[in-house]
Design brief:
heterodimer; A: alpha/beta; Rossmann fold; 5-stranded mixed beta sheet; 12 helices; 14 strands; globular; B: alpha/beta; 5-stranded parallel beta sheet
Chain lengths: 324, 337
């Protein structure tokens, strides 16, 4: 019986890295004795003390700014956003100071900013953000978005050990719903590598985060219809695994890009453009994007469900492409 | 007849060193103006004329061998000279040269690594460096290095949210941070009265619960003394101090700005209180230095600035193919680390 939740995987990654490397510390709101709003850091202050599990004022600029300053001095800070939505409060600091540090002045600024993202939990407009696209056009910050407990742990360790800033997007819908058996030994999942979750030959679904399960479900339904769908979990948004994307498209000739963030200007637009530029000759149908409506995420369950992408929309898109 | 002078523990050697940095700042800026007029300085040029005193004096209160870190704003070139920045590097920065510290990626005094250099350049989003300096001093405490950070911030930047967040966090954490709030009368064209309703900017310290002090920024020794008290408190674990230095921007916001919005009487009034002239006069009056000492310093400074200018002028521009390099570790561009 699998025992490690997606949330536990994140905590274990932090604890193991803090044991391994005295430069690693956690800083954020309510991360200390309270253990974090989602209990992601539960018990950590008991092992590492308030000097390495630092409670802060409600002050995202101070959290990201202080983490960045400490990183310049050789530390390896993990900055927690209580909800990833609040990263917008620190957007200036992150994109202007932290992300540019190496390119501008040659100073490594290896911070991890992590926090709960995503919808499906009735969090409403300010507790449901999928922030990846906001950062894709501001070079200098890596972006990862794990969908499994294995990847959450392995990517967080890779992010902490990385010499550059990493935005680690956790999907809170998955926190306690996903349980897996994880290796007992230390491992990392390399940043920039996709995972082919399911191999297929008729159509490719490229996705990440919690949407990998929507893609899985859609692929299972398509299999019942005799359609073989390939599901690619991108895992890393910046840098992204272009080779995996192009190889799959070359094989299936049809592609859906599925993401939970709004459609317009979403990360899918970049991947679609890349496919159009580099694999146009392989396409037998237009590139299709399935994404959220172009609205803030609404609170009420019927509205939220209607705003976010789901299996039915993926299936409709797949059938449209297969008919093309 | 001499006039007694409280030098706050500074020796004659220290005092002459301060004068050297004051003169170096002024002469180097004058050289940059000349290069600007020759279109060799291609970006904005921001003078600190009339503010060299507080920049140099405050930064002189730090101990760079101890690992102390100073963070200048655009008008605090003097502070990084005190910390050890090379004039040739500064000129190369302004001239966008390929062998400047930032290899042509960044402007003016936006350079320096806190650990390696003892100073760190600002970014243009004003206020952001206060949280960053909080993090630098936090790291120093975690690493048990007993270092002190000093951040400069302007009257205008003290309106930003980042300033408040950084000050609040640093004070809550009792971090060893000294914040020099330069009140030079104007933020670009906006007078301080339109910036903040408090009459005394140091009163903002009450919002944080940190120590504060107000000092005449054109009085070099008074500024040094205030900064030294704050540095000593910080090093002793007594936390943050906000020091308002009252001074005046004699020139416009940048070289292109004719500051028509500043009443001429104010410029005349403050020009008469030139911090460098006042400092040198005080030393002579106290019998601590002679005119010949200053002449020797001026000659040395002119010579150093000439040499630095020659070096910068000979430097190459960056190669265009470097534009895409050095964003992330791994391409070896910065020699890594």
């Amino acid at each position: 019986m699998p025992v490690t939740t997606y949330l536990d995987a994140i905590r274990e990654a932090m604890i193991e890295e803090m044991r391994r490397d005295p430069r690693v510390f956690l800083i954020g709101e309510d991360v200390g004795s309270y253990g974090g709003a989602f209990k992601t850091s539960a018990g950590m202050i008991d092992e590492f003390g308030p000097g390495r599990v630092i409670d802060t004022p409600i002050s995202e600029v101070a959290i990201v700014g202080a983490a960045s300053g400490a990183a310049l001095m050789g530390m390896r800070p993990i900055a927690e956003m209580q909800f990833i939505d609040f990263i917008t409060c620190a957007y200036d600091m992150l994109v202007n100071f932290t992300a540019t540090s190496r390119y501008r002045v040659g100073s490594s600024c290896p911070i991890v900013v992590r926090g709960p993202a995503g919808g499906g939990t009735h969090g409403g407009p300010f507790h449901s953000l999928n922030p990846e696209a906001m950062f894709m056009n501001r070079p200098g910050i890596k972006i990862v978005a794990p969908g499994t407990a294995y990847d959450a742990k392995g990517l967080l360790k890779a992010a902490i050990r990385d010499d550059d800033p990493v935005l680690f997007i956790e999907h809170k819908f998955l926190y306690r719903r996903i349980k897996e058996d994880l290796p007992t030994e230390d491992y990392v999942v390399p940043i920039g590598k996709a995972n082919v979750r399911r191999t297929g030959k008729d159509i490719t679904i490229i996705t990440w985060g919690a949407m990998i399960y929507v893609a899985d479900d859609a692929a299972a339904d398509l299999a019942n219809e005799g359609v073989s769908a390939e599901v690619i979990d991108l895992r890393s948004i910046i840098p992204f695994d272009e080779e995996a994307i192009l190889n799959s498209v070359a094989k299936t000739n049809r592609v859906i890009i599925l993401h939970e963030a709004p459609l317009t200007g979403g990360a899918g637009a970049e991947f679609a453009a890349r496919i159009a530029e580099k694999a146009f000759d392989y396409l037998d149908a237009p590139i299709k994007r399935v994404a959220a409506l172009d609205v803030p995420t609404p609170y009420s369950p019927p509205l939220e469900a209607a705003a976010l992408p789901d299996k039915a929309r993926v299936l409709a898109a797949a059938r449209e492409l297969l008919r093309y | 007849m001499t006039t007694p002078l409280d030098t706050h523990g500074l020796t004659r050697e220290n005092l002459l060193a301060i004068d050297y940095f004051l003169r170096l700042t002024r002469t180097l800026e004058e050289r940059l103006v000349a290069l600007f007029r020759q279109a060799k300085v291609i970006g904005g040029l921001y003078r600190s004329l009339g503010q060299e005193g507080e920049s140099v004096a405050a930064a002189y209160a730090l101990d760079y061998k101890q690992g102390d870190v100073v963070q200048p704003l655009i008008r605090n070139m003097g502070s990084i000279l005190v910390a050890g920045a090379k004039p040739s590097d500064i000129i190369k920065q302004y001239m966008a040269k390929g062998d400047s510290p930032t290899r042509g990626r960044e402007l003016n005094i936006h350079f320096g690594h806190p650990d390696r250099d003892g100073f760190i350049g600002q970014i243009s989003m004003l206020g952001d460096m206060i949280p960053v300096m909080a993090g630098i001093t936090l790291a120093g405490r975690m690493q048990k290095r007993n270092l002190v950070g000093m951040a400069f911030i302007g009257d205008g930047a003290s309106s930003t949210g980042a300033f408040y967040e950084g000050m609040n966090f640093a004070t809550v954490q009792r971090l060893p941070l000294v914040v020099i709030l330069e009140n030079n009368g104007y933020a670009y064209s906006t007078p301080t009265a339109k910036q903040s309703a408090v009459k005394t900017l140091a009163d903002k310290a009450h919002a944080f619960g940190c120590a504060s002090e107000v000092v005449d920024g054109n009085d070099v020794l008074a500024t040094y003394a205030a900064a030294k008290r704050a540095v000593d408190r910080a090093r002793a674990g007594e936390g943050v101090t906000l020091i308002e230095v009252k001074t005046f921007r004699i020139k416009g916001h940048a070289e292109h700005d004719n500051q028509s919005y500043v009443p001429i009487q104010l410029i005349e009034e403050w020009s008469a209180k030139d911090p460098v002239v006042q400092f040198e006069k005080a030393l002579v009056d106290a019998g601590l230095a002679a005119t010949s000492d200053f002449e020797a310093i001026h000659a040395r400074v002119r010579n150093e600035v000439d040499t630095a200018t020659d070096e910068a002028e000979r430097s190459p521009m960056p190669r265009p193919e470097e534009a895409g390099m050095g964003l992330f570790a791994g391409d070896g561009y910065w020699g890594e680390g």
